[in-house]
Specification:
globular; mainly alpha; about 45% helix
């Protein structure tokens, strides 16, 4: 039997009193993309953006605040991945975008 933790899921474990949710670390992605709207398309990095978006969507987290300053292709990959994660988790209609 596989659970989300075996797959490296970003979704937090069940929370108890006083426990905070685990935040998904986007520092490396932010460093590569923030304030770089003119960055040339990078196929590998676009895959990372999509995957990060899926993880955010699965966790029910909003898209990062730095997203508007990223290149168009990165914004699209993150948004598409986020929508997929929300749909998979069943939160598609009521989650923050």
């Amino acid at each position: 039997m596989m659970d989300g933790h075996a797959m490296g899921s970003a979704a937090p474990a069940k929370e108890g009193p006083g426990q905070a949710t685990r935040r998904i670390n986007d520092a490396p992605l932010r460093a590569a993309l923030e304030n770089r709207r003119g960055r040339v398309f990078d196929e590998a990095l676009s895959g990372v953006c999509y995957t990060h978006g899926v993880r955010l969507g699965l966790a029910g987290d909003a898209l990062p605040g730095w997203l508007p300053t990223a290149p168009r292709w990165a914004r699209e990959a993150l948004r598409t991945g986020h929508a997929s994660g929300l749909a998979i988790s069943g939160r598609g209609g009521n989650a923050p975008a």
